[in-house]
Amino acid sequence: MITIKFTGQAEMNAKLRAIAKNYPLKVKKALRKHLELLMTKMKQPDNIPIDTGNMRDTGFVESDEKGIGATMGFGGPAAPYTLKVHETHKTKSKFFERPFLEASGTIMRDVAEDCQLSTEDTK
Predict the structure, then answer these.
(1) Which of 33, 43, 57, 78 is the 20 to 30 Å CA partner of 16?
(2) Rounded to whole angstroms, how far apart are CA atoms 1 and 28?
(3) 13 burial class (0-12, 13-18, 19+ CB within 10 angstroms)?
(4) pLDDT digits (tens, 9 = 90+) for 1-21
(5) Domain boundaries, the chain
């Protein structure tokens, strides 16, 4: 007769519960990191038209308070002309849309790579 005895089941269950608990925060942090990198790219002089710098300086990334999502954009009271410039600038229109679309094919993969699970996630 062959007998197999597994030990450490309680410890493994505790680690799995800790990973599950910490995973949403890990995804949220990774998403924020990659959106901040994208925003930095969007703010580069070769991408966005710069006169006074007000419009560029309105660029933001905000993590949602609940859930994993985030919001990013340009404009507001400091640069109410942002949408018009985005749509009609002669050489740098779509300064938000172009980099966003370019990143859309890889950003979730990058977030997933940053979120690889390990038992280190239980600490």
Answers:
(1) 33
(2) 50
(3) exposed
(4) 565 555 677 887 787 787 777
(5) 9-122
